[in-house]
What does this fold into?
Amino acid sequence: KSWVQTLMQRYGVIGKRDFFSFVVFLTTIVNRVQISYWFIVVISYLAVGGVLLSQRKMLKKATRISAQRNVPAEDRR
It folds into this structure.
């Protein structure tokens, strides 16, 4: 792997997390509060949409796991 790939693997999570803060910081520094507001609104709606879309899949997975826990150990084979 190149050093760029290694760097992105290590610090990719920080970049994703801090991108939101960085954009809000830049837009407020240049006194564009309206852009910051709409950026926050759009990102919030996208996050809610992602949760709602994945909710059914997560509930199925949780139900399957809890059903496996209720089966006695000798019957799990």
